[in-house]
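Write out the bound-state structure for adenosine-5'-diphosphate.
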Amino acid sequence: MGKVIAIFNQKGGVGKTTTNVNLSACIAEKGKKVCVIDIDPQGNTTSGLGVDKNTLENTIYDIIIGETNIKEAILPTEYENLHLIPSSVQLAGAEIELTGMKNREIKLRKAIDEIRADYDYIFIDCPPSLGLLTINSLAAVDSVLIPIQCEYYALEGVSQLMNTIQLIKKNLNPSLEIQGVVLSMFDGRTNLSIQVVDEVKNYFRGKVYTTIIPRNVRLAEAPSFGQPIIYYDARSKGAEAYTELAEEFLDLEEDVI
Ligand code: ADP
Ligand code: MG
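---
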């Protein structure tokens, strides 16, 4: 059975999508079967994996709101072992449409149950909000992977994030765990970045990955070419870091490569 993981932080711009695209690609490159679900209406994971958002037949919207079978929305990507369930702009209205629906919090969980066995890992890219799409994600997963940006307000919002996880555990998903915390956009030249690393490690005790993702311009460029960093520029610092993170992730899972 595959493990299902949400990349979650209700703050925008902290590196969720970048981590989703690149960690997934690195894990797939190591031979694991990976499916990425893009549940953010912005669809940055979808375009970041080179899929044109304008030509899609079925998206995660059709699965959550409609009656479409999840298997009909799975797309191959250009990369081996890496599949995608794309997002759609229609998702922006899904929060409202879901409000009146029965079982509105567990629609995604039910859908994912049908493909769990087909993958080693399923990663969900959450939107930057605490609405029903995020609740659906957190209700569907085994664990959350939390990216935190190395900036002045890094820990702002973290207590709200932890409260949300506690609420979901209590009401919808008792076995929900924290997979790990990834520090992103680290700039070793600033004392601030170094200070943030200490603060986050202190707060999350032992849950923070040793691998830290540096600020790297190649990581910011790669999405406009629709390529994960390991294919866009394999020798960049960003590619090195996400490869290392994938290795650390699999190591902690005791998943042999
Ligand atoms: P989120 O999904 O949390 O909103 P993104 O992954 O989209 O965050 O990142 C926000 C912006 O920062 C994007 O433009 C992305 O390309 C850029 N970015 C993310 N991580 C890095 C990094 N390590 N180095 C440089 N730019 C980054
Ligand atoms: Mg995003």
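---
The domain at 3-249 is CATH 3.40.50.300 (Rossmann fold).
The chain has a mean pLDDT of 94.
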